[in-house]
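User: We ran a pulldown and think these components assemble together. Before we commit to crystallization trials, I'd like a predicted model of the whole complex to look at. Sequences follow.
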Amino acid sequence: MNLFRTIVLVAALVGLGSGLVLTLVQHFSVQPLIVQAEAFESQRDEAAAPKPHDHAASGEHDHLAAVKADLAAQKAHEAHAHDPDAWAPADGAERFGWTVAANVLSAVGFALLLVSASELKGGLTSWREGLFWGLAGFAAFTLAPSIGLPPEAPGVTGAALEARQLWWIGTVAATALGLALLAFGRSPVLAVLAVALIAAPHVVGAPQADEPPAIPRKLEHDFVVAVIVTGFVFWAALGALAGALRPRFGGA
Amino acid sequence: MSHADLRSSAAPAAGASSRAVSIVAAFLFGVIIIGGTGFAQMAVAHNAAHDHRHSIGFPCH
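Assistant: Here's a predicted model for the assembly, 313 residues in total across the polymer chains.
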């Protein structure tokens, strides 16, 4: 069978399996914290929402100041609020269904990256070998970006989204490349380069927010722990499953 | 010896380059999927994948 089809088929099966594992773990670890955090988030958003000021009470002289204050409040609100007119799944089965779909789809995407990268080394041969690739995936995709950008619960406002996405992608790429150089490089020079590559994004530093979070510190902390541990279980399952399934599809 | 082995020993260079094309294509396919589920900024994509994005630790909002 053509190698492309083999990789896609293995990744589809691995993504389905590990996406369901992710859903199961997430449902009991992260999801309750998301719901708690959203209560604080909507409280803050309501507090920040512009209130119509009382024209009769405010004299004509400070009318302009009141209008300016209204505009500023509205601008601040729009800066971190979601587009209220956009479609969103209804709470309950619909919201859960979209989460399952997104979990499985992303898991297929991550499995495509892991399986195709491992083909550069001749393809996975056992679940144990796959597990180690999965641990590397956990280090690159969960641990490394979480150092500078701890997973944000709803109500935790970060810096500008584009800047954070860029730093996240750069950190994942540098860490993955660094780990590959550490594992497969054959000289001390490459190992030194790998360590520098993994450390570099943290020397540059992640873009940080200047706004305090709207949720209690303990909830913020518990959320970070839940996401990282969930990510660990997910990547372990993804890697081991990829290693177990790949040899069944021949040498390609 | 299987058919695939015969073919790859007959044309090792072609085999290696088609392996490389397959690997790169599958990798890019994965990048595109994650771009959609984790990074697309359309409000609809964000809302549908909201809980998923928070659970993976993608930058969100």
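Chain B has a mean pLDDT of 82. That may be worth checking against your pulldown data before setting up trials.

User: Thanks, that helps.
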